[in-house]
Amino acid sequence: MAVVLQKGTLGFAFPILYCCILVLCILSSVSGEVNGCSKQEMQSLLAFKGGLHDPAGRLASWNASFSCCLWSGISCNRLAGHVVAVDLHEKRLNGVLRPAVLFKLRALKYLDISSNNFTGLPIPVELGLLKNLRYLNLSRAGFAGSIPWQLGNLSSLEVLDVSSSASRLTSPSLSWLTNLTALKDLSLDGVHLSATSSTWGQSVSRLSHLRNLTMSNCGLTGSIPSSLQNLTSLEILHLDGNTFQSEFPSWLAKMTSLVSLQMTNANLNGSLPFELSQLPRLSRISLGYNKLSANASQIFEGQWKSLTYFHMPNNSLDGPIPASIGNLSSLAFLQLHRNNLRGTIPESLGLLRSLTVLDLGYNQLTGPIPLSLGSLPKLTNISLTKNALSGAVSESHFRGLNSLKYLDISDNRLIFYITPNWTPPFQLDVLRLSQCKIEGLLPPFVKTQRSLTTLDLSNNTLMGQIPPWLWNLTKLEKLILSHNKLEGPIPSQLYMCTFLKQVELRDNQLHGNLPNPPRSFAAGFPWVLDLSINNITGPIPSEICGMLHTSRFLSLASNKLKGQIPPCICEQSVYLEALDLSDNKLYGKLLPNFSNCSSLKVLNVASNNLEGQIPVELGKLKKLQVLHINNNRLSGNVPSSLRDCKMLEVLDLSGNSISGKVPDWIAELSKLRIVALRSNKLEGEIPFQIGYLQKLQILDLAINHLSGSIPQYLSNLATLRNKALIGSRSDEFRYGIYYKEEINLVVKGQEWAYKYILYIFTSLDLSANNLSGDIPKGMGYLKGLHSLNLSHNQLTGFIPRELGEIINLEALDMSCNRLSGRIPETFVALNSLGYLNLSNNNLSGRIPAVRHLDTFGASSFSGNPDLCGPPLQKYCSYYTSQSEEGEDEEGEQSVDWWDSWEGGMVMGCVFVWGCVMGAMALSNHLRTRYCHVVDSIVNFLL
Questions:
Q1: Scanning 250, 308, 370, 852, which has its CA 20 to 30 A from the CA of 444?
Q2: What share of the chain is helix, strand, coil (3-state, %, to 5)?
Q3: Each residue of 505-526: pLDDT tens digit?
Q4: d(CA 266, CA 314)
Q5: Nearest to 185 by CA among 204, 211, 203, 208
Q6: Within its chain, how far is the Cα of 657 from the centroid?
């Protein structure tokens, strides 16, 4: 049937026809989403899959039964049906990448294979063929080696992420970036770029469209290149974890597009410019763990219009926090711990209604905690620890903190006073109230905190028994109740709490025997169990051996335990890192099966009644760092097997009956920092090899039978020579996951326990032996030495003037020797000297009346018959003063030459010669005889 269109209807028909065609195209695109994937593209993707290993079956949908547009991770163009995106992130894939086969995917713009397991494989150079790519993400996929320069061929690329979590990737140059002119986002986190430190700024600054730049932990050094300020569109700049050795770039305050600035732990110094606060879009700033300085009053007076996140711990931010901080209405995160903040916490912090995290710990803040903090409904974390805050803390401080999860107000001067029937409005995960003057029973409100994972109520005055309800907090992992007055027996529930990982009940008044664990229960002890400094009695039950298979740290020190150490104690302790049974009444032999504790780093059985020889099996403890077996009844030689403990840092065998010689192989233990062998029966000479111990801080060989001279090589001890090599908190005496070293030393004539300052203390004690000879002048090179004790030996000669160069010396004892000569005038430089004992020697002359030497009493100089001057009562004669003027330039003692035997010989010869000459002058016969003798001698010689 013919259709006749009237002349007037043509204008209406064409729009209808166009709409029909458009509907057909849409239907075609919908069907194409199901069936539109071309055979060639499907084959390419299957070939790409063929090189992959898919242990989790994440690519199970990749088969020819379905259109590739329906496969997991594949996206297609709706109109043409071509594959435009391959997203395989977090598929747990490994195997071999074949990107060349993807070259046939002409429309591919998006490729993400991040967060997979291509461990050790290089990034394929063939990726440079996919020139239509706009998005490429290869981050954290395990790739290694050099980033191929062929990636620079991807001229359409807008996003490139090759971040590496393990620094396996590197790039000797970033010049290939300059071709990526369309790039907007660049992430190179973790890529080792130290070789580009002087050039990376030139390459990156040419990317004029760049908005996001993250290059954290790349090993960059030097200064931050000022050429980056050419990136006028830059919004995100993250350069954390580099070592720039640079001042904070002032030009950053001119980059008005910045939204996020992160340079944490980047070794920056200098001051933070106030102009940074005027940047209109800056929302996030993270500059923690640098050496930046700023005045808090000035910094927080700024506008900070968009600031939500301010992270600046471990810097030098000083001054008070101004009330104007309350104007930062968008601030949600404020972390300023370990700075130099002073003054009070302003009430205006209560105006920050968006605040979720407040961390002002480790500063010098004073005054009360403002009540206004209790009205912040979104606050989840409060940390005010380690300040000087004072006043009472009551329920009013928490009335509106419904979201609170973390509370730490420890170690201040606060008084935590909460009524017994108080029910908090929050459910905490962490509660730390150490040193908050809490008295009496455990606060009842704690039982309402069912989500607690950490509870620290140490250093208070808690009394009574540990309440049974405490063990009902089934999420509790860390329980710290040390340094209180808790009493009663050790709760048997301790064995039942499978959730506990750390239990510290140190320094209380707990008593009774260690309870036997149930035989049917094999959950094991917490990772950390500290029951030291209590009144626990009885033997160590052998049943606990089966509970140690989960333990990392066990301390039963300073109790009243008796009996033998159970032989089974190391049978299952494969994870045990520290075992401290010191200061008890244990007896028997030191067990050889301690060697079964293969993970042991600390073994402390000091101050018991153990006897026998040191087991040679201890040499099998390859991870051992601290060995304390001092103050027992051990005998025999130091076993040579200990030379295999190469990680050993502390060796304390003092207070036993160990005999033989100080082993020369001790120099093989290069990590040794403390060697204490005092109060034994060691004999022979001090081995010169000790001078090779470059990290040695404390050497104590006192009260033995050592003989010979002091080795000159002791002056080579590097740590004692250079004070700069000690004193770092990172070098503190901490071992395992909890143990902190403590050692008793005799300093200034008294025994002291050194713990908190041990990492900066140095000492050399050779007293009470049979050492002889001179004191080596090289001892004066030990400028990092704090205590030197050479007393009660047979040392002779002068006191070396070089000892006056040990400017850090605090204690010097050379009493009871045979030293002679004068006290060196160089001692005037010993400004730190607080203890001096030169008594009972043969010193002579005037005691130097200089600076602080006259502050020491007569006992410091007594027993020297020829010593005179204050503080002694003996007056110095005129002749003593005259002889002191003869001291030579080098400061050695200048003996009156005419009083010496050499002078007497010369004077005698002169006298005899004068008599002969006088006689010849008076007698012709003698002159003739003398000439005859001289002629005979001359003739004989010729």
A1: 370
A2: 25, 25, 50
A3: 999 999 999 987 765 445 567 7
A4: 12
A5: 211
A6: 37
